[in-house]
Specification:
Layout (H helix, E strand, L loop, with lengths): L13 E3 H8 L3 H9 L6 E3 L2 E5 H10 L8 H16 L2
Antiparallel strand pairs: 1-3, 2-3
C-alpha cells in the first residue's frame, strides 16, 4: 500500500528526536536504535539529529504492522523492508 502525500511547505520542517519520540509515542532510546539500524533516516546537524516529516510518513508506511520492540526485531524488519524494495 502506498500513501500519497500532498506536498506542502510545512512538510519541509525538520523534527528533533524529542518531537519524533512524542509523535511515535516511543522512548528516546527507541528512536536512537531505529536510526542506528537504518529503519528511520536522520540528518545529523552538528550534535543533533533531525528528521523530516516525509521520512516519518515513509517509516510508518514501510514498517506498518511489524515488530520493532527490540534490537533483533528491528534488524529483521529492516532486512525485510530492504528485500521487499529490491523486488519493486
Amino acid at each position: 500500500m502506498q500513501i500519497i502525500i500532498e506536498f506542502k511547505t510545512e512538510h519541509l520542517r525538520m523534527l528533533t528526536r524529542k518531537e519524533v519520540c512524542e509523535l511515535l509515542n516511543v522512548h528516546r532510546n527507541t528512536v536512537a536504535m531505529l536510526t542506528k539500524l537504518g529503519a528511520l533516516h536522520a540528518i545529523k546537524n552538528g550534535k543533533k539529529y533531525m528528521y523530516s516529516q516525509l521520512e516519518l510518513f515513509r517509516f510508518q508506511e514501510d514498517y506498518q504492522g511489524m515488530d520493532l520492540s527490540n534490537y533483533k526485531a528491528i534488524e529483521e524488519a529492516v532486512k525485510m523492508v530492504e528485500d521487499n524494495k529490491k523486488y519493486l
